[in-house]
Write a structure and sequence with these properties.
Elements: E1 10-13, H1 17-28, E2 33-36, E3 60-63, H2 69-80, H3 83-90, E4 92-93, E5 98-101, H4 103-116, E6 120-123, E7 135-137, H5 148-155, E8 160-165, E9 169-171, E10 181-182, E11 194-199, H6 201-213, H7 234-238, E12 266-272, E13 279-282, H8 291-298, E14 309-311, E15 315-320, H9 323-326, E16 332-333, E17 336-341, H10 351-369, H11 382-390, H12 417-438, H13 440-451
Parallel strand pairs: 1-2, 1-7, 2-6, 7-17
Antiparallel strand pairs: 3-5, 4-5, 8-15, 9-13, 9-14, 10-11, 11-12, 12-13, 16-17
């Protein structure tokens, strides 16, 4: 096991999705790692356990459809030998066309894999400085005050901060299934992967009115900055207009209420939190309401009138750097290349996007130690396009970005939207296949190890 005196050990700070992935990728190539995780000695405002790679918001890794950017990203990460995707596959719960996991089983398995690797030293203490040698900063959106001054000194004081929100979770046996019904939109998946709470127009209007006037947690002065658009609290979305929710997270399309035989005016979907199907989260209901108001207002939803809340929604701080001005395409800091920044701290927003950044940062270290120049992932891939966008100096007004087809090279020759997306997916699959084949020796250890984890 490496120690602080091991000269060739890589320091990885933060054992979330990106840090755990990076540490594993390095150790598989016989590179010793010191992996710092501050929990449980130092608490986080959003975490509930001391497990590694804990999922603090949704338990979904999004779509499996290869014609969507999230689906492409999963395929690419599997081609690169991702630990996080392999564990997600091994701990999956029913979620229609999406990949969702039993969050406790997922984090427990990642923790076991990391703790059992002989070349990874897990250091359970808060890092407060950036040591010499190769370093991967993967402190995530909840970067602690202890390490913030060191990161600020490294990148400058103009980092951006915003706020993210998590949705409530309710007990399955407290959902009124005489009102709610199991179904996936357009019957995708097994048909019972989501529980749907239908609202008629009057019920939706009453819910909306209560939401707009509800008591919210009063933010501190430093919290009154930009809210990340992709994770807006439901009450903020509601302020955009009366149909903002009905055309968004509460859209009823693709669903028929078996009690009426008709499409509801709006639908609140609930997604399984664990394999036992004993807990469900309220999809799209991340919130900054007080706990009392959450109970009052979400209990107005038909089917949730007697809901038992296992966890209320919370809002927490997210931190990221101005990647286009600071980071090279291999996620190294331009002014200090021995330091890489991975995961949500780099502004690649999303669970798998964070883990994928851990792979890119680890490959950067591996290439440097082999004396070779890092070869960027093809821009035709979902991950390659995301990293290219995040590290392009021409990118202005930078905000955290999920993988999406909009930042991938277009295919204007294909007129049909459906066929165009499929063509982009096929192109991405061919690009990642060629990339991996060209660097087969680099990816063989991780691919083999990941295949031993995934079912």
């Amino acid at each position: 096991m490496p120690s602080s005196s091991t000269p060739d050990a890589v320091t990885v700070i933060g054992a979330g999705l990106a840090g755990s992935e990076a540490a594993w990728q390095l150790a598989l190539r016989d590179i010793p790692v010191r992996l710092f995780e501050m929990r449980p000695s130092t608490a986080s405002p959003a975490h509930h356990t001391d497990a590694l790679a804990e999922l603090v918001c949704s338990n979904s890794f999004k779509s499996l459809d290869a014609a969507t950017a999230p689906g492409m990203l999963k395929r690419e990460m599997e081609a690169l030998g991702s630990l996080i995707v392999a564990v997600a596959r091994a701990t999956a719960v029913p979620a229609g066309a999406a990949l969702a996991v039993d969050r406790e089983a997922f984090s427990a398995m990642v923790t076991q894999v990391i703790e059992s690797h002989p070349l990874i030293e897990l250091v359970r203490t808060e890092a407060t400085s950036i040591p010499d040698g190769d370093v991967i900063l993967a402190t995530g959106p909840l970067t602690s005050p202890g390490i913030e001054p060191a990161i600020s000194a490294l990148v400058g004081g103009d980092r951006l901060a915003f706020f993210d929100a998590a949705a409530p979770i309710v007990s399955a046996d407290s959902i009124d299934m005489t009102v709610a019904f199991p179904a996936s939109r357009y019957d995708k998946g097994e048909g019972a992967d989501y529980i749907n709470c239908p609202l008629n127009r009057e019920q939706y209007d009453a819910f909306l009115a209560a939401l707009l006037t509800a008591e919210r947690v009063i933010p501190k002065a430093f919290e009154q900055k930009d809210l990340f658009q992709a994770c807006q609290p439901i009450e903020e979305i509601a302020r955009c207009g009366p149909d903002a929710l009905r055309f968004g997270a509460m859209k009823p399309v693709g669903l028929t209420d078996p009690n009426t035989g008709e499409r509801p005016w709006a639908v609140l979907q609930l997604r399984a939190e664990n394999r036992a199907l004993t807990a469900y989260n309220l999809v799209g209901c991340q919130t900054n309401l007080t706990f009392g108001e959450q109970r009052r207002i979400f209990s107005m939803i038909p089917g949730l009138q007697d809901a038992e809340f296992l966890r209320y929604g919370v809002m927490h701080r997210n931190t990221f750097v101005d990647a286009p001005r600071l980071l090279a395409p291999d996620l190294s800091v331009r002014t200090e290349p021995r330091v890489r920044i991975a995961g949500q701290l780099s502004g690649t927003e999303g669970y798998l996007e964070a883990a994928a950044g851990g792979i890119v940062a680890a490959l950067s270290v591996i290439d440097a130690r082999q004396g070779s120049v890092s070869v960027p992932l093809p821009a035709d891939t979902a991950l390659g396009s995301l990293i290219a966008y995040a590290t392009d100096p021409e990118t202005t007004r930078y905000q955290p970005m999920h993988v999406n087809i909009g930042i991938m090279p277009p295919m204007p020759s294909v007129r049909s939207k459906r066929l165009r997306r499929a063509a982009v997916g096929d192109r991405a699959a061919a690009a990642i296949e060629s990339y991996v084949a060209l660097h087969a020796e680099t990816f063989a250890p991780a691919r083999s190890a990941a295949e031993g984890i995934a079912p």
